[in-house]
Recover the amino acids of this structure.
């Protein structure tokens, strides 16, 4: 007799789901309310918020809000109807693609409704069973899911270790010669957990010895890094060596969706073969117009990025001066590394939120190894230096409590 699917699910809730009863609504799926910004309400009390990827503060910028309002009034959220290939294309969609192409210095661009979906679907579309993928071990889940769809061979290299990347390229080159396939290397511009930039310039240099194409997920670099905000490739002076560039609208653009930029013929191939876009309704025109406004703000207001980095440098330098370990980050992503159990982490976060009114994300096992706690801070252009100073002072107090054993427990904090 076969097993019952629902009974299997009930018996194994997964490494995160097993804590759902105790954590839901507080440690997981919390509800932040009010205007998006550094100060929001959580469970009826105002908190200093470090958990949003609203890097440039565009989510509630008055000009952006007005553009969103005007676009919604004209188009609603139903227009255009249908997939772009059939009936959902518009001049606005094509304008945004053209302007994004110019912004990231690529020939053409395809808009994608959702960033995660775009990465998964693009990888599936670009390679076949004869091709070989080489990818960074700490790639985002969307990359890992795309790689899992690949029916050919894949080789993983140790995180940001270029020597190991070359070793895997040697293996991939040998195999591709046997299968008649091609090689796709995939990495990130900025790794969202550690905050360290991918070794893009060094990987691009490997093209002198190996024949491969490079796909870069620059979700946390776009709008933040580079002289004009065009991302990690611009920051490292190797944008031309990135063959397929992915940017999301969920971070510095403070909206939803994403895009892929590349050579014109490659984008044309994606446009006619990428199933997640061919068979999906077009992005609403109101969102497209909102994105055009956000892109215009990035180009015309470099002071937003300057303020972001002022806050980032103050936060990261202040944390290091106070004795905190923030690892190899060279982006705005600011992880604070601590040691402790999951129950200790929950008690610490509960204290931080309820008694110090500071809200930040907690990362524990299985995302990171057992015994490690990461408090992940995302500075934005709309934080203040006073916010930074207050947070560092609060962190010093709670870490003192952690080391003194005040958060010791054998169960998750009661909420």
């Amino acid at each position: 007799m076969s097993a019952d699917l629902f009974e299997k699910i009930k018996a194994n809730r997964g490494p995160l789901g097993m804590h759902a009863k105790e954590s839901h609504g507080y440690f997981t799926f919390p509800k932040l309310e009010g205007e998006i910004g550094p100060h929001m309400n959580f469970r009826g009390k105002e908190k200093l918020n470090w958990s949003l990827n609203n890097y440039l503060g565009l989510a509630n910028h008055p000009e952006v809000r007005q553009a969103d309002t005007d676009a919604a009034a004209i188009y609603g959220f139903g227009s255009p109807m249908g997939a772009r290939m059939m009936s959902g294309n518009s001049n606005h969609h094509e304008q945004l693609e053209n302007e994004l192409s110019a912004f990231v210095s690529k020939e053409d661009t395809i808009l994608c409704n959702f960033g995660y979906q775009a990465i998964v679907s693009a990888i599936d579309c670009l390679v076949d069973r004869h091709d070989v993928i080489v990818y960074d071990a700490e790639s985002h889940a969307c990359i890992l899911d795309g790689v899992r769809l690949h029916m050919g061979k894949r080789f993983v290299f140790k995180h940001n270790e270029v020597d190991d990347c070359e070793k895997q390229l040697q293996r991939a080159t040998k195999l591709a010669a046997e299968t008649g396939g091609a090689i796709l290397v995939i990495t990130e511009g900025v790794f969202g957990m550690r905050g360290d930039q991918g070794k893009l310039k060094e990987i691009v240099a490997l093209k002198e010895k190996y024949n491969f194409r490079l796909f870069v997920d620059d979700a946390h670099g776009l709008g933040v890094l580079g002289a004009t905000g065009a991302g990690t490739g611009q920051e490292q002076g190797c944008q031309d060596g990135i063959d397929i560039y992915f940017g999301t609208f969920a971070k510095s653009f403070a909206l939803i969706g994403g895009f892929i930029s590349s050579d014109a013929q490659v984008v044309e191939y994606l446009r006619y073969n990428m199933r997640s876009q061919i068979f999906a309704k077009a992005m609403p025109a109101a969102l497209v117009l909102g994105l055009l406004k956000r892109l215009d703000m990035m180009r015309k207001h470099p002071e937003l990025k300057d303020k972001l980095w002022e806050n980032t440098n103050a936060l990261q330098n202040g944390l290091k001066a106070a004795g905190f370990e923030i690892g190899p980050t060279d982006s705005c992503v600011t992880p604070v590394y601590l040691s402790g159990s999951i129950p200790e982490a929950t008690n610490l976060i509960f204290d931080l939120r309820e008694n110090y009114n500071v809200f930040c994300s907690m990362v524990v096992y299985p995302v990171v190894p057992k015994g490690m706690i990461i408090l992940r801070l995302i500075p934005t252009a709309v934080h203040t230096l006073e916010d930074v100073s207050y947070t560092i002072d609060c962190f010093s107090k709670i870490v003192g409590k952690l080391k003194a054993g005040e958060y010791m427990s054998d169960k998750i904090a009661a909420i």
Remarks:
- DSSP finds 16 helices and 14 strands in the chain.
- The CA atoms of residues 5 and 183 lie 38 Å apart.
- The mean pLDDT is 95.
- The first strand starts at residue 32 and ends at 33.
